[in-house]
Amino acid sequence: MITIALPKGALLKDSIRLFQQIGLDFSTFLESGNRQLQITDPTGQAKALLVRAQDVPVYVEYGQAQLGIVGYDVLKEKSPNVAQVIDLKFGYCRLSVAVKASSPYRSALEIPVHGRVASKFVHCAQEYFESLDLPVEIVPLSGSVELGPITGMSEAIVDLVSTGRTLQENGLIETDILFDSTARLIAHPLSYRLNPDNMNAWVEQLRELTLAAA
Questions:
Q1: Is 90 exceeded by the pLDDT of residue 74?
Q2: Domain coverage including residue 157
Q3: I want to staple 73 with a disulfide (CB 3.0 to 4.6 A). Which of 34, 181, 199, 208 is the partner?
């Protein structure tokens, strides 16, 4: 029986819907009042773990799950030792630099040398500003990074943007896009090679579905 790590949050519904299309049903996770963190598909062919999105690649890397679904943004930030198997083409968002709408800065390059940039994506932000040859101080935050510029703690933020509504409602604007992100199917590298429980047959079905939907 293969184990699949599914992410809590925005990607969960689409992830469950995707697996339903190949005959694996983990919809119990969506039931109100459900507190289970591990369920087995009714056919008994696979089980799923419900974990924080940031932890999906950890469970896969350490072999507690053979497959997982996670955003490219998480993979880029954490650089785990996993195989990126399929771009699933859902969960689109982008990692962007944003500043206050009233700020004089309209490009990341205009941020002052040694200025502050708040972000949950410390590695990605640092890498980006190093690529610009612009030394800045990355201020690590775990949530509500929009408050960085609002309170004056930082000149800018690096954060995920989907519709842009949150930025707009907090008086912020995008200036630069670091990269686009979509959901990815990842696999434990050794499992992907050894194909336990005919795992790769499930992978190929998911690949065909994704290609058909493109």
A1: yes
A2: 93-180
A3: 181
